[in-house]
Amino acid sequence: MSPMISTQPSPVERLLSITELAHDLNITARAIRFYETKGLLEPQRAGSNRVYTNRDRARLLIILRGKRLGFSLAQVQDYLDLYDADPTQKDQFVLLLSNTRRRIADLDQQQRDLELTLEELREIEQLTLAAMHEAGIDPTSSSTPGARRTLEEAP
Q1: What are the tens digits of pLDDT across the range 127-150?
Q2: From CA 57, how far away is CA 63, in angstroms rounded?
Q3: Spatial contact of 52 and 33, defined as CB atoms under 8 Å apart
Q4: Residue 8 DSSP label
Q5: How many Å apart are CA 83 and CA 69, to the nearest integer?
Q6: What is the CATH architecture assignment of 18-71?
Q7: N or C end: fewer C-beta atoms under 10 angstroms in the chain?
Q8: Nearest Cα to Cα of residue 61 among 99, 35, 92
């Protein structure tokens, strides 16, 4: 982990506009404003314009990574709050490890659930193919009435 980042830009630090930051991270300005409304980002102002420091960019990268990994915004906020509050980052590491282990367990369970669902669907597929074969129905034929309807479309 990197050392604590100052909240004030250094004299040579380049400030980014919301458009530049959005373009840089391949997200929308609206997404950045959303994270601001949730209290995850607090950009400085230059007149009426938001300006973002490297620290803001780093925080946004953490937010986006947390989102991609399936963490809630509240979990990301807790993590970011600890970064600001604990220069040793001990509590941040403990929280991250706990949340990561919980997320891994959740994903492992989802994977098991998906495997069971796929197994059941494959069984249904085989039973359906066998029944179609016994009935003399060509499973590749699309001329069967209603063959194009899916279960979602069925009444």
Answers
A1: 999 999 999 999 887 655 555 555
A2: 10
A3: no
A4: S
A5: 19
A6: Orthogonal Bundle (1.10)
A7: C
A8: 35
Under a CB-based contact definition with an 8 Å cutoff, are residues 42 and 95 in contact? Answer: no
CA-based torsion, 141, 145, 149, 150: positive or negative: negative
Domain ranges of the chain: 18-71, 86-136
Longest dimension (CA), the chain: 80
Fill in the amino acid letter for 140.
Answer: T
DSSP track, 12-75? TPPPB-HHHHHHHHT--HHHHHHHHHTTS---EEETTEEEB-HHHHHHHHHHHHHHHTT--HHH
CA distances from 34 to 37, 42, 44, 48 (A): 5, 11, 16, 18
pTM more than 0.90:
no
